[in-house]
Hints:
three-stranded antiparallel β-sheet, 10 strands, alpha+beta, seven-stranded antiparallel β-sheet
Amino acid sequence: MTIVHQQTVQMKQVSHGNFLMRNVLKHNVVFNEGTRGDAAYILTEGKIEISGIIEGHKKVFAILKPISIFGEMALFLDDNSRTATAIALEDSKVIVVTKDDLEEYMRDSPKVISSIITVLVSRLKSTTKKAMKVPSTGMGVVRILDLFASNGTMTLRYDTAIKSMADTFVTTTDRIEQYIHGLAGQGLLAVGRDEHDGRIITLLERNLVHEVMKRKD
Length: 217
């Protein structure tokens, strides 16, 4: 059995000085299941294994190749506990994306962030449905919608958004719809139809997280 050691992190500044490039040597850990995390990673070189412990045995969920985003749930959930382990299968490079990085970079480069958000929302979670236990799904939905609103995207296709979020949070479309209609009942979004009679979600607040938290107080 290969003994995996946590690598001493070596980073250099990239992009606007906010994003960091991390070099991860073969067999080294990016993050461990159960630890707290506040960042996602974009794999630019190498290969990353995503795995977890199921009933006492290791189960490999995915083998990622460039360009892939992983660890993204930490950007959306109140509980930042990692639900899987990420290990480099070969020497790799990843860009570290924290919540603060994402928000600042979004203001400067909305087109780039729009593509990142799209990947985040439609991510591969179907391969880990039996293993993933994602807490705070309601606030996760709010955070995703908040990112779209912050990026200037105020209208989403209903069916696509519901399915993508159900896959992302490893839950049913019915449960996501309950959250969506709950937000609609609070006047934070509207569910309607476009000119082609397709169902749409229209966001009515640009700072959705703030509005939700304010109404909880």
